[in-house]
C-alpha cells in the first residue's frame, strides 16, 4: 500500500517533469537565440576608440562582455555620458567611472616628435585603427584625423617620442549674462506665446535627456526669445535650449566619428586575421610591458 | 458571464494582488525602473499567470484528485509554473533580446513570484471551476500589470524631478508604493 502510493507520486511528478521538459526542448529549438542584437546595440553606444583600457581588446569584445553581465563603468574615453547611455539602454543604475581603468580626459590626438623617431614600427603595430604611417628605418607620423587618442602607441615607443596633444573641449558653458532666474513654476505662459507651438516648460524639464528633448521637437525652436520675455521666473530658456541643441549636435557628430573609427578597426582586424604575420594578435598589456623592458635594457 | 466580469473587476481593483494582498512585490519594485521593460514584464507575467491557473486546475482535477495525491499539490504546481516561465523566457530571448537583457534575472524569478503560486492555490482552496479559475488568474495578472506599469510610469516621471536627498532612490519608491496602496484601499467599499 505504502509502496504503491510512493510509486504513484513519483510517477506523476516524473510524468509532469518529462512532459514540460519535452515541451521546453521543442520550443527552444523552434525559437533560436538572438543574443547578438544586444551586443550590436551596446557597441553602438561605445566611443569606438579601441583603447582597450577596459581590459578587453576592443570596443566590440567589451560590448559582448557587457551583454553577459560585465560592469558598464569601464570605459574612460566615453566618460559619464556613455555610462549614462548604457544605463538607460540596459535599465541599470548609473555608476561612477571605474578609476582603475583610467580617468576620463579631454579628447586628444597622438603626435610623433619626428626628429626623434628611429623608425622602429612598434607604434604602427600597436595602433588599433592604422592611424600611423611609416616604414622601417623611416620616420613615422600620425594621421591626426584618424587618431582616436587611445594612447596605445605611447607605451611601445622605445624612445618616448610620442606626445598626446589635447584638442581642447568643445563645451560651451551657459552664457554668462546675469542669472536672476527662479525655479520653473509651471505657469504655462511660455507655451502660449511660443510661435512654434512648442512646450518650453517641458523642454526645460528634459534639458539633459537629449532623446526626450528631441521627441519634443527641440529642433523646431527658432530661438526667438519670446518665452524668455514672458517667463515670470526669468529663466533664460532660449539660452538653455541652444545649449541642449548643441549637445544633440555634438552627440550626432561623435556617433558618426565612432562609426567611421569602428569600420577602420574592423577592417584592420580582418586584415590581421587574414595575414599570417606574427603580429596577428594584439599584444596583451603584460607582453607589451615585457617587450618594452627588454628594449629599454638595450638588448 | 456577469460572474466572470465580477471576478475580473474584483481581482483587478478590489482585491488587487499587489496593493491589497501584498503578493508579487519583488518584481513590482525590481522591474519597474523603465516603462518599456515594465510593459514586457507585465506581459510575461500575464501570460504565465493565466496559463498557470488553467494548467494547475487541470492537474488538480485530472491528476491529483483521481490518484488521491493532493499532498503533491504545491510541488507539482511549482514544476508547471517553472516550465511555463522557462517557455516564456525562451520566447522573449528569441524575439526581444534587449528586453531579455534588461529584465535579466527577473524573468526566471517569475517562478518564485508568490502571486503565481498564490493564484493557483487560492483557486484550489475556493474550489473554483475551470473557467472561473482562468478568469481569476487573468484578473490577478491584469491587476499586477496595471500596478507595475503605473508604478513604472510614476518612477520615470520622478527621475526628472528634484527629490530631497534623504528621499532619493528606494525611499521615494516605498513612499509612492504606500500611497498607491492607500489609493487602492478606496476600492474596498465595492465588495459584493
Description of the molecule:
The complex is a heterodimer of chains A (299) and B (192). With 299 residues, chain A is mainly α. Chain A folds into 3 domains: 36-101, 3-methyladenine DNA Glycosylase II, Chain A, domain 3 (Orthogonal Bundle); 106-169, Alpha-Beta Plaits, CATH 3.30.70.20; 187-279, no CATH class. Chain A has helices at 2-30, 36-45, 59-67, 79-90, 122-126, 189-193, 200-205, 210-215, 226-230, 237-274, 285-296; strands at 108-112, 132-133, 141-142, 162-166. Chain A has a two-stranded antiparallel sheet with strand order 1-4. Chain A is flat. In chain B, 71% of the residues lie in helices and 0% in strands. Chain B is globular. In chain B, helix 3 runs antiparallel to helix 4, helix 4 crosses helix 5 (97-103) and helix 4 crosses helix 6 (114-125). By secondary structure, chain B is mainly alpha-helical. Chain B has one domain (2-186).
Structural key phrases:
heterodimer; A: 299 residues; mainly alpha; 3-methyladenine DNA Glycosylase II, Chain A, domain 3; Alpha-Beta Plaits; 3 domains; two-stranded antiparallel ribbon; flat; B: 192 residues; 0% strand
How many domains, in number, for the residues of chain A?
3
Helices of chain A, by number, come to 11
The SSE string of chain A, one letter per element, is HHHHEHEEEHHHHHH
| DSSP strand tally of chain A | 4
Q: What does the largest sheet of chain B look like?
A: none
Count of DSSP helices of chain B? 8
Tell me the fraction of residues in β-strands of chain B, as a range: under 5%
Q: How much helicity do the residues of chain B have? A: over 70%
Main β-sheet of chain A, in a few words?
2 strands, antiparallel
Report mean pLDDT of chain B, rounded to a whole number.
86
Order of helices and strands of chain B: HHHHHHHH
Helix and strand content put the structural class of chain B at mainly alpha
Radius of gyration of chain A: 28 Å
Spatial order of strands in the largest sheet of chain A: 1-4
Describe the global form of chain A: flat
Number of domains of chain B: 1
User: Greatest interface and its residue counts?
Assistant: A-B, 28 and 29 residues
Number of strands of chain B: 0
Oligomer: heterodimer
Structural class of chain A: mainly alpha
Amino acid at each position: 500500500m505504502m509502496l504503491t502510493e510512493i510509486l504513484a507520486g513519483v510517477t506523476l511528478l516524473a510524468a509532469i517533469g518529462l512532459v514540460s521538459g519535452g515541451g521546453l526542448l521543442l520550443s527552444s529549438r523552434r525559437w533560436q537565440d538572438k543574443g547578438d542584437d544586444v551586443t550590436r546595440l551596446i557597441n553602438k553606444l561605445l566611443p569606438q576608440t579601441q583603447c582597450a583600457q577596459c581590459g578587453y581588446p576592443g570596443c566590440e569584445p567589451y560590448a559582448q562582455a557587457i551583454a553577459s553581465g560585465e560592469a558598464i563603468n569601464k570605459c574612460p574615453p566615453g566618460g559619464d555620458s556613455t555610462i549614462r547611455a548604457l544605463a538607460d539602454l540596459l535599465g541599470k543604475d548609473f555608476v561612477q567611472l571605474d578609476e582603475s581603468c583610467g580617468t576620463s580626459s579631454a579628447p586628444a590626438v597622438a603626435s610623433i616628435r619626428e626628429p626623434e623617431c628611429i623608425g622602429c614600427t612598434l607604434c604602427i603595430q600597436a595602433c588599433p585603427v592604422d592611424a600611423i604611417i611609416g616604414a622601417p628605418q623611416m620616420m613615422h607620423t600620425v594621421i591626426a584625423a584618424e587618431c582616436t587618442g587611445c594612447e596605445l602607441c605611447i607605451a611601445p615607443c622605445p624612445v618616448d617620442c610620442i606626445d598626446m596633444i589635447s584638442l581642447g573641449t568643445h563645451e560651451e558653458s551657459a552664457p554668462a549674462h546675469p542669472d536672476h532666474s527662479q525655479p520653473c513654476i509651471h505657469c504655462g505662459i511660455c507655451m502660449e506665446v511660443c510661435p512654434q507651438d512648442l512646450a518650453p516648460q517641458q523642454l526645460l524639464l528634459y534639458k539633459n535627456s537629449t532623446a526626450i528633448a528631441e521627441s519634443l521637437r527641440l529642433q523646431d525652436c527658432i530661438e526667438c526669445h519670446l518665452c524668455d520675455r514672458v517667463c515670470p521666473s526669468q529663466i533664460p530658456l532660449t539660452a538653455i535650449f541652444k545649449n541642449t541643441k548643441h549637445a544633440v549636435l555634438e552627440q550626432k557628430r561623435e556617433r558618426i566619428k565612432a562609426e567611421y573609427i569602428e569600420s577602420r578597426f574592423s577592417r584592420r582586424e580582418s586584415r590581421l586575421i587574414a595575414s599570417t604575420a606574427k603580429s596577428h594578435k594584439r599584444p596583451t598589456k603584460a607582453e607589451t610591458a615585457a617587450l618594452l623592458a627588454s628594449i629599454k635594457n638595450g638588448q | 458571464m456577469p460572474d466572470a466580469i465580477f471576478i475580473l473587476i474584483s481581482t483587478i481593483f478590489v482585491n488587487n494582488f499587489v496593493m491589497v494582498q501584498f503578493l508579487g512585490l519583488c518584481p513590482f519594485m525590481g522591474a519597474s525602473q523603465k516603462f518599456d521593460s515594465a510593459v514586457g514584464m507585465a506581459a510575461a507575467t500575464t501570460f504565465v499567470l493565466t496559463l498557470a491557473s488553467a494548467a494547475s486546475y487541470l492537474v488538480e482535477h485530472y491528476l491529483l484528485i483521481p490518484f488521491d495525491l493532493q499532498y503533491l499539490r504545491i510541488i507539482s504546481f511549482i514544476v508547471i509554473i517553472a516550465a511555463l516561465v522557462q517557455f516564456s523566457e525562451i520566447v522573449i530571448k528569441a524575439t526581444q533580446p534587449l528586453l531579455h537583457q534588461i529584465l535579466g534575472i527577473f524573468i526566471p524569478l517569475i517562478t518564485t513570484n508568490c502571486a503565481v503560486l498564490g493564484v493557483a492555490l487560492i483557486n484550489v482552496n475556493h474550489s473554483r471551476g475551470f473557467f472561473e479559475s482562468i478568469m481569476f488568474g487573468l484578473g490577478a495578472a491584469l491587476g499586477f500589470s496595471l500596478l507595475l506599469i503605473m508604478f513604472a510610469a510614476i518612477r520615470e516621471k520622478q527621475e526628472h524631478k528634484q527629490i530631497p536627498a534623504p528621499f532619493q532612490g528606494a525611499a521615494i519608491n516605498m513612499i509612492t508604493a504606500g500611497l498607491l496602496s492607500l489609493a487602492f484601499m478606496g476600492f474596498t467599499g465595492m465588495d459584493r
